[in-house]
Design goal:
There is one protein chain. The protein has helices at 20-24, 26-36, 54-62, 79-88, 90-95, 106-114, 120-141, 149-153, 157-166, 173-185, 190-216, 224-231, 240-253, 256-271, 273-281, 286-296, 327-330, 365-382, and strands at residues 39-42, 48-51, 67-68, 146-148, 302-306, 310-312, 315-317, 322-325, 386-388, 395-397, 403-406, 408-411. By secondary structure, the chain is an alpha+beta fold. The chain has a single domain (20-385), classed as Cytochrome p450. A five-stranded mixed sheet has the order 1-2-8-5-3. Helix 7 crosses helix 9, helix 11 packs across helix 12 and helix 16 (286-296) packs across helix 18. Bound molecules: protoporphyrin IX containing FE (HEM). Protoporphyrin IX containing FE is lined by residues 61, 69, 72, 99-100, 107, 111, 162, 249-250, 253-254, 257-258, 261, 299-300, 302, 325, 327, 354-356, 360, 362-364, 367-368.
């Protein structure tokens, strides 16, 4: 991904999260900013602020009155696209994709509706499916000398799991992946981005209509979209636009976030043999290792919009400015994490905020953790001797979600 706005020369006053150097190695940039200018600013794509300390990111995340979630996109949606969307479904613009694009009270009750679908108990039910997805993928990879860990493995897993939860056909997985990439990863291409969200909206509107018909004919459907439709009978607040918005969120939220985390974990293990060997020989450290990999390679940055002119820590934030919730940089803050640049798979104290902080904390965290665990365990059990193939380039995506999109792996005999 490249930016049309030119390379960054001044990270403190003109940062760009799509700059090539930021995509490849944001860690050094955050360290320098944290020392010299802990909240950077840019006027690229509107007035945006970028906090880099744990303290600032968590404080801002908790102050939802001043920092609203009604604009969470790191790369803003073009105004013309908003107008085009109005022709397709004007209501969805009003509600967005709650709970992630909402403030209380809408955020509170829409979040409460979906949380039971991602409880520990419910997630355990999805584990055998996740295991068989991973095993099938490995069956196709095994025996090959070169594999793309991102495309052939990581990218294929979360989309299949969430398709099952939404009750949509597995054949749609490539289409969903393309839509989500166009919407989040290639967000600078506004035409593709609009087309992708238009197609998602049209597709889900059709699915919702079909489900409604089947439910009215007495079919017993057990998927999250049907659940939301059935809830409409007893809760008049759940209008059709909310069912649509929540379905959009559920489709988008769990796909490239989780595949990025799986890809980054494979990249780390394929680049650090001693960690790979340790995890292979000591499977009991898997849970701790997953938390450390989430801390070190946190994939998600979200945005907030400033609701009123505010002086925050000496930064003159204006109403309408955006703040980029830099959870990944906060997770490398030396005031909170000992030796934050060292990836220590046995790290004991690790209060990372890869899943966010405050009221919007990730609704799918249990699911993401389970998918990561099954994906990594299966890979290293069945293909134990792999490494990143340094003769070929690794390609990182970033902006809203950071992770490897091309990850050449080689296997030792
Ligand atoms: C490693 C994978 C994942 C990471 C790192 C991640 C990260 C995050 C973060 C940082 C937020 C907070 C957003 C904010 O503060 O604005 C969030 C919210 C959310 N995530 Fe995840 N996520 C992951 C996987 C998933 C999965 C698998 C799902 C399942 C569908 C999911 C569903 C949600 C939902 C529904 C919210 C909104 C919660 C709310 O606004 O109350 N996420 N996620």
């Amino acid at each position: 991904m490249t930016t049309k706005l030119g390379p960054v020369k001044d990270w403190e006053n003109d940062f760009d999260v799509l700059d090539y150097s930021y995509l490849n190695n944001p860690f050094e940039i955050w360290d320098k900013l944290r020392d010299r200018c802990p909240i950077a600013h840019t006027d690229r794509r509107g007035s945006n602020w970028l906090p880099t300390t744990y303290d600032d990111v968590t404080k801002i995340a908790h102050d939802f009155m001043t920092f609203s979630s009604t604009q969470v996109l790191v790369i803003p949606f073009m105004e013309t696209a908003r107008q085009d969307m109005e022709n397709i479904n004007p209501e969805v613009l009003g509600y967005g994709a709650p709970p992630i694009t909402a403030d209380p009270p809408l955020q509170t009750w829409t979040r409460r509706l979906i949380l039971p679908w991602f409880s520990h108990k419910k997630v355990a039910e999805y584990e055998p499916l996740t295991q068989s997805i991973c095993d099938n993928l490995i069956d196709k990879i095994i025996g090959r000398q070169f594999v793309d860990g991102a495309v052939d493995y990581a990218q294929q897993i979360p989309v299949r799991v969430i398709s099952h939860i939404l009750g949509v056909p597995e054949e749609m997985t490539d289409t969903f992946t393309t839509w989500v990439r166009d919407f989040l990863e290639f967000a600078d291409n506004s035409e593709n981005r609009f087309n992708s969200i238009r197609d998602i909206v049209i597709y889900l509107m059709t699915v919702i209509d079909q489900r409604k018909k089947l439910i009215s004919q007495g079919e017993n459907l057990d998927d999250i979209i049907s659940f939301l439709i059935k809830e409409q009978k007893t809760n008049s607040e759940i209008n059709d636009a909310i069912v649509l918005g929540m379905s959009i969120l559920l489709l988008i939220a769990g796909i490239d976030t989780t595949w990025s985390a799986i890809g980054s974990a494979l990249w780390h293990l394929g680049s650090n043999r001693e960690d790979l060997v340790m995890l292979k020989n000591q499977p009991e450290i898997m849970d701790t290792a997953i938390e450390e990999l989430l801390r070190a390679y946190s994939p998600v940055t979200m945005a907030r919009v400033v609701t009123k002119d505010t002086d925050y820590n000496g930064c003159p934030m204006k109403q309408g400015d955006k703040v980029l919730m830099n959870f990944p940089a906060a997770n490398r803050d030396p005031l909170v994490f000992e030796n934050p640049q060292v990836v220590n798979l046995r790290r004991k104290i690790n209060r990372h905020i890869a899943f966010g902080s405050g009221i919007h904390r990730c609704g799918g965290a249990n699911l993401a953790r389970m998918e990561l665990k099954v994906a990594i365990r299966t890979f290293i059990d069945r293909l134990p001797d792999f490494k990143v193939d340094e003769s070929k380039p690794v390609m990182w995506a970033g902006g809203q979600v950071r992770g490897p999109r091309v990850l050449p792996l080689a296997f030792l005999d």
